[in-house]
């Protein structure tokens, strides 16, 4: 088999890249180690930055997102027994966020890629990359029928997430990382959202977040210990703790319902500045991870592949390699700003295990400043809806 761009991973990064290339007449094959059913059911991110939702519209993929997604013009922050709203729209000159489940985005893009004839090889086994330094790199894998396959490509896009095989195939990586002394326990519940907007709550018991997927589905998160055993969290305990942490002002109660899905996610910050090795380019979670508090992961993946697609288009149109050479530098400014924002939101809103009362009071003062003064609120709002994008 031969293609122009071999894409490893059918997450948001790989699928969006394949779509952007297809629109400019560039062929790709997507190799995914999980089944279609698995990736379409994997509950993860929910917040799209303003420009990402606009991009999805511009490339003809916004139909279901505009129908079923929820446009939010503000978020709320709950602390010290009260709640304050950050008016994203007023503070950013009219921008908003789109709440649309990552798995819905994945479903839409898988359907569009397959309809356009792009092969997606699901359930690929033992995926490996070869000859990255030469003119024709290759991807090898075993197909779902067990046969060994090789795809020769002009370029390989490593969109295979944090635990993929592309990043480890690069020698001498420049890596920067932090881990946090807590994790998030997330649930998806068959319950109407209890508020129209997202609520980020800083409570003495720990952080909690109220988000949603639809008028019938709530997505909720609790800060827990990094090594927490999910078996210690029966549904009753989860609801009780969510009620405590989210209903600080006593004015309302969280709607409860059947828990459809639950899981624990570790929190880390990670940047691999080596985003290119020969003809292999890393994009999305394969190159960087943010703690989810800033809702930036999927958006950074979209930003990387937009930059990469433009560089590949320039190469195929004119043989020009300058944009390919500039790819890491063109992405890293945005990546580090999203890292800073995600680290800052995480540090401001979570309770650290060894934290003393001094630090707790500093956190409260910071939330008070951010939610009570326009300069503070605007800095949060501009980062949250997505900094201006100049690829
Ligand atoms: P993905 O989505 O991990 O996709 C990688 C794909 O590669 C496949 N794969 C392989 N395929 C072939 N061969 C191999 N050896 C392979 N190894 C892996 C995987 O099966 C998968 O299909 O990475 P991508 O495309 O870079 O997208 C990144 C986003 O998924 C991620 O950043 C977000 O989910 C992070 N995130 C959030 N981001 C946001 O922008 N807004 C949010 O509100 C938000 N909330 C979240 C989140 C992540 C969370 N978890 C569970 C990590 C909330 C949570 C709880
Ligand atoms: C979500 O809806 O899953 C979500 C929202 C905001 C975040 C993280 C996750 O910061």
List keywords for this structure.
391 residues, alpha+beta, FAD/NAD(P)-binding domain, D-Amino Acid Oxidase, Chain A, domain 2, 2 domains, 8-stranded mixed beta sheet, 6-stranded mixed beta sheet, 12 helices, 28% strand, globular, binds 8-demethyl-8-dimethylamino-flavin-adenine-dinucleotide, binds P-hydroxybenzoic acid
Description:
- The protein has 391 residues and is an alpha+beta fold.
- The chain has two domains: 5-46 and 101-174 and 273-345, FAD/NAD(P)-binding domain, CATH 3.50.50; 180-267 and 354-385, 2-Layer Sandwich (D-Amino Acid Oxidase, Chain A, domain 2).
- It is 36% helix and 28% strand.
- The protein has twelve helices and 20 strands.
- An eight-stranded mixed sheet has the order 6-5-14-15-16-13-17-20.
- A hairpin with a 2-residue loop joins strand 5 and strand 6.
- The radius of gyration is 21 Å and the shape is globular.
> Main sheet?
8 strands, mixed
Number of helices: 12
The strands making up the biggest β-sheet line up spatially as 6-5-14-15-16-13-17-20
Count the E strands. 20
| Hetero ligands | 8-demethyl-8-dimethylamino-flavin-adenine-dinucleotide, P-hydroxybenzoic acid
Helicity range: 25-40%
- The residue ranges in which pLDDT falls below 50 over 5 or more consecutive positions are none
Strand content: 25-35%
Structural domain count: 2
CATH class of the largest domain: Alpha Beta
Instruction: Give the integer mean of the pLDDT values.
Output: 96
CATH architecture of the largest domain: 3-Layer(bba) Sandwich
General form? globular
Structural class: alpha+beta
């Amino acid at each position: 088999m031969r293609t122009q761009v071999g894409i490893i991973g059918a997450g948001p990064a790989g699928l969006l890249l394949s779509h952007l290339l297809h629109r400019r007449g560039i062929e790709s094959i997507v190799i995914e180690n999980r089944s279609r059913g698995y990736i379409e059911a994997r509950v993860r991110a929910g917040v799209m930055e303003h420009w990402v939702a606009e991009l999805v519209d511009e490339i003809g993929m916004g139909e279901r997102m505009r129908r079923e997604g929820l446009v939010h013009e503000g978020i709320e922050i709950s602390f010290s027994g009260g709640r304050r709203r950050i008016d994203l729209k007023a503070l950013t000159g009219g921008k908003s966020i789109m709440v649309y489940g990552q798995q819905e985005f994945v479903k839409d893009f898988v359907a569009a890629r397959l309809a356009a004839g792009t092969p997606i090889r699901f359930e690929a086994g033992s995926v490996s990359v070869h000859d990255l330094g030469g003119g024709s790199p290759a991807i090898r894998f075993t197909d779902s029928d067990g046969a060994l396959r090789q795809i020769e490509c002009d370029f390989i896009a490593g969109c295979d997430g944090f635990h993929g095989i592309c990043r480890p195939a690069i020698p001498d990586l420049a890596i920067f990382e932090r881990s946090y002394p807590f994790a998030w326990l997330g649930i998806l519940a068959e319950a109407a959202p209890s508020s129209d907007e997202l609520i980020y709550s800083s409570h003495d018991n720990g952080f909690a977040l109220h988000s949603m997927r639809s008028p019938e589905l709530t997505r909720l998160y609790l800060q827990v210990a990094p090594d927490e055993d999910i078996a210690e969290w029966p549904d009753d305990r989860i609801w009780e703790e969510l009620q405590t942490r989210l209903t600080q002002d006593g004015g309302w109660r969280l709607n409860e319902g059947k828990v459809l899905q639950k899981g624990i996610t570790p929190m880390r910050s990670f940047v691999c500045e080596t985003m290119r090795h020969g003809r292999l380019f890393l994009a999305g979670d394969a190159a960087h991870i943010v703690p989810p508090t800033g809702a930036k992961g999927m958006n950074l993946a979209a930003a990387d592949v937009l930059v990469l697609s433009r560089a590949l288009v320039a190469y195929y149109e004119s043989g020009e390699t300058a944009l390919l050479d500039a790819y890491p530098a063109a992405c890293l400014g945005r990546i580090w700003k999203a890292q800073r924002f995600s680290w800052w939101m995480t540090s401001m809103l979570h309770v650290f295990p060894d934290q003393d009362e001094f630090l707790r009071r500093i956190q409260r003062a910071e939330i008070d400043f951010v939610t009570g003064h326009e300069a503070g609120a605007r800095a949060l709002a501009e980062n949250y809806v997505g900094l201006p994008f100049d690829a």
